[in-house]
Design goal:
This protein has a four-stranded antiparallel sheet, with helices on both faces. The protein has nine helices and four strands, in the order βαββαβααααααα. Helix 3 packs parallel to helix 6. By secondary structure, the chain is an alpha+beta fold. Helix content is 58%, strand content 12%. The radius of gyration is 19 Å and the shape is elongated. It has two domains: 65 residues, Alpha-Beta Plaits (2-Layer Sandwich); 116 residues, Homeodomain-like (Arc Repressor Mutant, subunit A), CATH 1.10.10. Keywords: DNA-binding, Transcription, Transcription regulation.
Length: 187
Amino acid sequence: MITQEFKIKGRICSRCLKVLNNEFSATGAKVVDIQLGKVVINYSPKKINRSIIEQIIVGNEFEIIVSEEEILGEQTKRWIINYIYNSDLSTNLSSFLSSNIPKTYSVISDNFSNVFKQTIERYALLLKIERTKELIEMGKLNFTQIAYLLGYSNLSGLSRQFKNETGCTMKMYKEKMGVRTPLDKIR
């Protein structure tokens, strides 16, 4: 039996984990660990080979990453998503990333820009816009509450950025419920 870890780009939801887990299990491979950004598989080379494993990963629209830069970039992306969706946003993003990734913010930021051709701040803004759309659709919070939840000191800052990015006001979005972008497609 061989145990092998694969770093995977684009895996950011529990449904993605379930799909990969089911497909690997169907081949006879035993999933030892599966979480955002990686999967560890135990398999018999007599029954399944590495190319089949790679076909499952690529066939489900994921990408295997091998370079340290891409791995750090994906790790940074996951922490930014965690920050926007699961933290109270009381600390600034750079401090949050530096406290969760064992690198200086300068290294993290430069690497992110090189790998994704955009800044961390731009990516975080796009995530906040998608989170705003989601919160509007849920209908539990008013616009001011959404702004405060996303770390804005007032509604006007969020409103301005929302309109600049989507081309419509938050009110227009609420009335029409426009299109949302899946998190793994934000660029």
